[in-house]
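Hello,

I think I submitted the 6R9 job twice by accident. Can you confirm which output corresponds to this input? Input:
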Amino acid sequence: MSQDAATDAQAEPLIAPPEDAQTWCTPTQYAELYAASLRDPDGFWALQADRIDWSSKPTHVDRSSFDPVNIRWYDDGELNLCHNCVDRHVLAGHGGDTAFIWEGDAPGDVRSLTYDALLAEVQRFASTLVEMGVRKGDRVTIYMPMVLEGAIAMLACARIGAIHSVVFGGFSPEALAGRIEDCASRFIVTADAGMRGGKTVPLKANVDAALDQHGISVDAVLVVRHTGADIAMTQGRDHWYHELAQTVPATCPCEPMGAEDPLFILYTSGSTGKPKGVLHTTGGYAVWVATTFHYAFDYRPGEVYWCTADIGWVTGHSYSVYGPLLNRATSLLFEGVPNHPDHSRFWDMCERHGVNIFYTAPTAIRALMREGEAPVEKHDLSALRLIGSVGEPINPEAWRWYRRTVGKDAIPVIDTWWQTETGGIMITTLPYAHAMRPGSAGMPFFGIQPELVDADGNILDGATEGNLCIAASWPGQARTVYGDHDRFVQTYFSTYKGKYFTGDGCKRDEQGYYRITGRVDDVINVSGHRMGTAEVESALVLHPRVAEAAVVGFPHDIKGQGIYCYVTLNVGEAADQALAGELKALVRKEIGPIATPDHLHFTPALPKTRSGKIMRRILRKIAENDFGSLGDTSTLADPSVVDALIAGRRAV
Ligand code: 6R9
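Support: Only one job matched these inputs. Its output is below.
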């Protein structure tokens, strides 16, 4: 996305929302509900808690504090999330409704599950986990392709009170090992292999590599047969799901969980150090995703809803699995990729499954936009009623293409801003309540109080630009970093005391619309995947010939941001093609293919202050080919480094 495209978003005219008599939220209702949510948060969230079946109703609502940091919602309530997602719909007579439609990597490879069938599958899976020795509070690592058993495994964990840690199937064995070790997980759920875009992803082999190469011993690895790939099974440790499942009870009761009992850990990148295990708990998360799904997607019974995110990301957790099931929706899960077998795959699937609500990422939209309108026009998208975007800023050009070509300029587009740490949608226009502004996420969701602050923490009023903070807690907020509460406090609550700092920069316009401008920390967003530049740097410096590395993001037409690596070699070493290949391979090995560098820029030196700090601001500008506004370089220990870097950039 180009800088210009991003900055003109504020000037984009508002587009009136379509009127809709059936909507859950009219403009007046939004205004009233939002005001009520701030005037009487406890009253508002007590009411929303009725979306959930509690085995013991909470008498408290919000008991959170940002200083000291202690986040608690509904803390004396008791519930089970799996019961809420599955059993209660069956008990209420809706067992025949479709819960999931799954389509594999190969077009037309389809499997559906009713709520009845899902209940049976989840119970069988939960019984299998119990048989393996999993107990309440145990961490279960789920390293799966996008298959039904991935979602079923999550629900099964929730059913028995185990904490799931889903690791995206695209992560390397190294990255997987780090995530297994960090939460001391003794159980792994995986598949023989996955399929993406016609290519096999060797998941079980990756698990073996992660465990063997790192000397990690786990109690059990449960393997779902999916592709039929030939794999090695370690006697006593590895079990085929289809074999164990036949020996276990067909029913498995729901474990009553305290509202603040952990539900899941999800690793996400920050500006420093290793990925953090963001922890979400049960009650508040349930209320938050149930409420946000209901209003943001304006879901109506019987509709087919499709979120294209993988369950390895928070979007897959909240809006492919938990949010839709809590609302008794039909959720489509897709194993493959948008450009396989061709660029009309998404639209072909929308037509065949009669998708009403479609939610995807800007990177996919930009990639499909490049293919022109023909692949979209070939398909009947008349069932679509609402389309959404998530994961990174969407440039107005892509937004308009999406609305015109996919939405026929007739249906609402929602651009939903949120984070792994927020659990669910925080800022979005509501589909029939708000006018849309291409490039702006829009208005705060109920209960959310965004604040824009300057570098010193002063709150800025009116139309302005600043760092985005949230003033008070909301039910879906992450509670801690697993095993490291200090890091949680340091990362999110120490920059601006008493506020949650998102790490995002943001503009607010005259109408009070929020437009996220991107990360202001050392996190980059590549195709909607969050990555710490420090993680890529750590991988690069593992190479024996590398002395130092500095990684920054740069604008990329399709990915939003690309990965630009400045690399300094040891004295006497010279760069060559082979080394470039080795470094790319090293990053893929340490993190995964999503972190593959786009550019390697070998340089004899990095720009540093006299105290030895790398001046990333300069590196970012140079990567952006913006040499005119490098700012003050006089504090550099050796200002001549900059000229060499510019000359080097021209050569990249
Ligand atoms: C849900 C998710 C979070 C970061 C976030 C921000 C960026 C997400 C966005 C957006 C602009 C949107 N982001 N949605 N930026 N507009 N609609 O993506 O979570 O993977 O944790 O990433 O993504 O920079 O801070 P996560």
